[in-house]
Amino acid sequence: MSEIVIAEVTTKKQRKAFIMYPFGLYARKEFWVPPLIMDQKMMFDPAKGTYFEHSEVQLFLAYRDDKIVGRISAHSNTLHNKTHNDKIGFFGFYESIDDQKVADALFNTAYNWLKAKGFDIMRGPMNFSVNEEIGLLVDGYHSPSFLMNVWNKEYYQQLFENWGLKKSMDIYAYRIQIKPVAERIARIGKLAQKRYGFEIKTLPVKDKQKQKDFLDKVFKVYRDAWSDNWGYVPMTPHEFKHTVDTLIQFALPEFVYIAERGEEVMGTFVCLPDYNVVLKKLNGRLLPFGIFKLLYWRNKITGLRVPIMGVSEPYRNKGVDIAFYARSFETAMNHKRQWLTGEFSWILENNVMMNRMSRTLGGEIDKTYRIYDKAIRENITEGASEEKK
Questions:
Q1: In this structure, are 38 and 144 located in the same domain?
Q2: Are 206 and 162 contained in the same domain?
């Protein structure tokens, strides 16, 4: 069999090949959802991608007989390592044919790149960080993933683990049928609002300044509420703006909340329509005719995903989260559109409170995504970084 050649991606043409490789790897009948090509081009462009403003990235392509058979990224995360005072390097965007030799070549290349940078642990997949798509789908191949969650080849798990990657953390996606929230939940939400005097406010629509002020409050909660989570990485203001500009295209204002008491912002909640239904139809291209498909298929969406729910530390265990969920269920049930399913994701396996809450609301684990580690320095144990306590 021919030799496997690994090439560093250094040109615009190679970046395009890196982006387009999965489009030929996955069959249309599979549940993989093509990303928008124009968004991918911006993400991987060192001159435009926000991640390049603070961290290093190297993309690699695997070739056999001049044909691309796999891809991977190796990247630092300066913000992660400053936050957790550790030396973890990352890999992501993994795709390949079902061939252990190809996988080994890709992983070895990423490993050696990270080792040369002085990192202690190799962790992934992270595309690029916990603020974006993360994890390898290891359970739940039977249905599509919701917006901003991955769906990958089932054989990847064996390729990863055969090379020597060890589980660091599992994260869950809970699915739920949308129906009237239990009377007890609704009552607790109302009592919490009355007792602690907070109001749930929705994203302003017409007033741009009020919308900006609202989103600034969301950013504040984001920094406060997730700072003690496993793997937390603070976004830069530029990254947050880019994320907001992306998500605002999908958001329905009546499903985006903050809880406020006077001038105090207690928490935030974001529920998004599952636009993966639309992205699947677009096949990566919005122009020239994708816009018409978008306008048609967006009205066929029946699923909602909750990617963001956070309560600042001083206001936890006061029913703010329950009030958010009760409000979202009520809104969904009384909405002009019919919503059938919801997803709470992602939720860390060690987040006892959120796992309990998801089950209380009627959710069941539908998908499991896994983060892997491999030690680079000899006396380091996988999954045992400073942040995991």
A1: yes
A2: no
At 388 the pLDDT is 37
Residues forming beta bridges with residue 306, ordered by sequence position: 344
**Domain of 9, in residue numbers:** 4-170+370-375
Number of Cβ atoms within 10 Å of the Cβ of 69: 22
pTM for the whole thing? Answer: 0.93
Does residue 362 belong to any structural domain of this protein? Answer: no
pLDDT reported for residue 175: 97
DSSP conformational letter for 163: H
Strands (E), the chain: 4-8, 57-64, 67-75, 88-96, 121-124, 126-127, 133-134, 136-139, 166-177, 199-202, 256-261, 264-273, 303-311, 341-348, 364-375
CB atoms within 10 A of CB 221: 21
Residues in the chain: 389
Q: What is the pLDDT of residue 157?
A: 98
The answer to whether residue 319 sits within a structural domain is yes
**Pair (186, 162) in one structural domain:** no
Predicted pLDDT of residue 381 = 61
- The segments of the chain whose pLDDT lies below 50 read 384-389
Q: Which residues lie below 8 Å from residue 88, measured CB to CB, with a gap of 6+?
A: 77, 80, 81, 119, 120, 121, 122, 123, 385
Kind of pairing between the strands at 341-348 and 88-96:
unpaired
> Can you give the pLDDT at residue 386?
41
Closest CA to 309 of 183, 174, 207: 174
Domain assignment present for 278: yes
Under 8 Å between Cβ of 247 and 272? yes
3-class DSSP assignment, residue 164: coil
> Any idea what DSSP says for residue 339?
-
| Domain count within the chain | 2
DSSP 311: E
Same domain, 27 and 165: yes
